[in-house]
Write the structure tokens for this entry.
Amino acid sequence: MPAPIVERIVGFCARRAWLIVLAAILLGLAASFYSATHFAMNSDAEALISPDTSWRKRNAVHDASFPQLQNLIDIVIDGATPERAEEAASMLTAALSKRADLFYFVRRPDGGQFFSHEGLLFLPVDQVKSTAQELITAQPFLGALAQDPSLRGIMDSFSTALGGISHGQAKLETLDGPMAAFAATLSKVRAGQPAFLAWRAMLTGKPPGSLETRLFIEAQPRLDFLSLTPGKRATDAIRATALKLNLRPEEGVRIRLTGQVPMTDDEFQTVTEGAQLMAVLMMTGVLAMLWFALHSVRLIGAILLTVAIGLATTTAIGLMATGAFNVISVAFIPLFVGLGVDFGIQFCVRYRAERHKDDDLDVALRGAGGGVGNALSLAGAATAAGFFAFLPTSYSGVAELGLVAGTGMLVTFVLSITLLPALLKMLRPGGEPDTIGYRALAPLDRFLHERRVGVLAVAGIVGVAGLAALPALHFDFNPLDLRNPRAESVATALDLMKDPQTSPNTIDVLTSSHDAAKRLATALSALPAVAQVLSIDSFVPDGQREKLAVVQDASNLLDSTINPFFTKPPPTDQETIASLATTAKALDAAADSAQTRAVADARRLAQVLRQFAEGSVDMRRRAETALVPGLNTVLDQMRAALQPKPVTRQSLPPDLVRDWVTPNGKYRLQVFPRGNANSNAVVAEFTREVRAIAPESTGAPISIQESGRTIVRAFIQAGILSFLSIAILLGIALRRLSDVAIALGPLVFAGILTMGTCVVIGLPLNFANIIALPLIFGIGVAFDIYFVMAWRSGMRRLLGSPLTRAVILSAGTTASAFGTLWLSSHPGLASMGELLAISLGWILATVLFVLPALLAQASFRGGLPETV
């Protein structure tokens, strides 16, 4: 917009100040009411990328085929013993399954009736035989326990076994493991510590593996995507239920939540952590910069009111256009504040300079409008064009941000030349007795003019060094690197990734038939980067005839032992005391004078049992709690495991089949990576090998890498479009190619130095901080345009002028608004704040040192003629 037109608009608004201010306030109130009644947030991360991309279409097909595998909460249960983990998993599953208001389903992927009965058939034949033999060996011990599953029964079984030792039928060493285990467990109970006996490990003599003490529950919650934490009601219910069931670390159980839903919620919690402190620091910094720039409460108030009304208006327009903000488009708020304040500072600083020349308020306002009209118009249009360039990209999240932020730039420009001068006319700030500018920078002005060739040569060398570093610029595709590693969901996911069998970084392949699935599974299993491939066939174990025969033989021998015809009634406390004392005497009798480990363990256990016999009722009850529930669990598991049935495709549970076969006959394969599943290099190689054979694959590793490529392409595309559109806009306004090059050159230079600095300090680009690039472009273009337009108007001592004061303090305001992000505990936001700080530093350095030298050199060669 030509300066004379802006000057007339400012003059008109100053004359009709009350009308303009009233209209703006009514507009702001109407926009605020609309925003308050229509505000909505879509926190669905998948909606950030266009569904029209090929990989999103493949994901959509897979998600539609297996909807029960989407948006899950993974409940990870770590028990002090396998029995304690099983008890917790069973209780929690049963309790949560009753909450149909919160969950579509709750299930045990590693448990249930099928795996309880047929679980042994999935072990190798040798392991089935060894397990059966261990149970048969423990038969004498198990009989008394099954008849009397109480502390009395446990002691009686010990006494029976010790009787065999006293008659020479066995050696004390055969009971060394159980004696040591009981002594250790009961000693903890006596000391008031959490204690739980690992019955299975004691009976088999083998320590439990991680897959025995770690169990899983899958829950599919009913999500509310209009909430910033769509799964909070469900996750809160899970934690509350666990506490109600006493599933706590001090009770031998650790419950953790992970999966897509808890991670999304935890990320929002991390983002808001310390938000109040950051907001206070941001506002303090912004107000300080405004004070240094304007030295007037009235001027500051006018800018803040203008920005507030503009923000309300832009918010309403954004909601009308998009329906709901996404987690990226909502970033237009700090963008608008930063650049809105910049426009206000530019106008007000120029007004102060004009007021110093002429104390007449109306004359100063019109002079400010005419003085900054060209630059402000061009800066607003160029910044808006830069944001609008994101509209055609596939990165929907940033496309919406571009739409809202670009619109906001036009809104803030209009308000800066209408509402702001009207407010200044109403508020009538005082005169300006002092010059506005930085006189101390006058020597630097002369230096840059006289040494312009040397300054540009140094800048060229630095720029070449920055270009040389760009090939080493790294983009971090791993979304876990952007999340708080201290958040429960992230820490749990990282823990699960240590084991390839529990890693969530798996790839799914959908095949057209059973035969195709078998052929592809064989080919994928042979890949070096693949640890295992699961399919529906993985749940039909091989060698069943031999395994069933082994288990049936053991069942025939143990059936009457673990399923007694008669069981004893619960003991009285006196009976428990008597059994404890009797067992202690038997242990003393069995412990001869030999100095063996078994003798020492027998004497230790005898002493502990006497202490319990002589102790309080509460102590004995706590001993029951430590021993008996686990005993009942392991007995139930034995009863189920010794009654397997042949497994066929037809006998598999329907829910299990549905996870692997679609109703229309498509078969799913799940491919697991070999090695560290959180390593970008490992996941990249894993993905490459699998996709070479199965290009239609889906899954987290593919989505992560494809979304990264989509985002990078979107920013490259938008960068080219915004550069071209701004160049065309500048060409129309400046009418000389050399002037356009001078306006854009420093911006490109600052971008190169920003990326080069990232390489030097090891800061990779990622899904979060790459969003800072539009802001860099917007601020850089505006600052460059201000200087170029000032030089074209005849201003030569730029650094000592009011313009430099406005630019420096505007950059300071933006740094205050965004720099506090660097303090965030959210790694993504912190990296964004860090990148913004780096870019602002280079933009300011380029504008203050390189651009004046470039302008001086262009003027020396006959370019940029003085037009004043």
The CA atoms of residues 629 and 751 lie 65 Å apart. Residues 862-868 have pLDDT under 50 and may be disordered.
